[in-house]
Amino acid sequence: MAEVDLVRHFTRLSQKNFSVDTGFYPLGSCTMKYNPKVNEETAAMFGFTNIHPYQEDETVSGILELLTNFEQYLCAIFGYDAFTLQPAAGAHGELTALLMIKAFHRDNNQETRNKIIVPDSSHGTNPASVSMVGYKTVVVKSDAHGNIDIDELQRVAGDDTAGLMLTNPNTLGLFDEHILKAADIIHKAGGLLYYDGANANATLGICRPADLGFDLAHFNLHKTFSTPHGGGGPGAGPVGVSKKLIPFLPGTKSKKSIGRVHSFHGNINVIIKAYTYIRSLGAAGLKEVSENAVLNANYMMKRLKEHYYLKYDRTCQHEFVISGKWQKEKYGIKTLDIAKRLIDYGFHPPTIYFPLIVEEAMMIEPTETESKETLDAFCDAMIAIAKECETNPELVKNAPQNAPVKRVDEIKAARAPRLRS
Ligand SMILES: *Cc1c(COP(=O)(O)O)cnc(C)c1O
Question: Which one of 155, 173, 294, 301 is separated from 223 by 20 to 30 angstroms, measured CA to CA?
Answer without folding.
Answer: 301
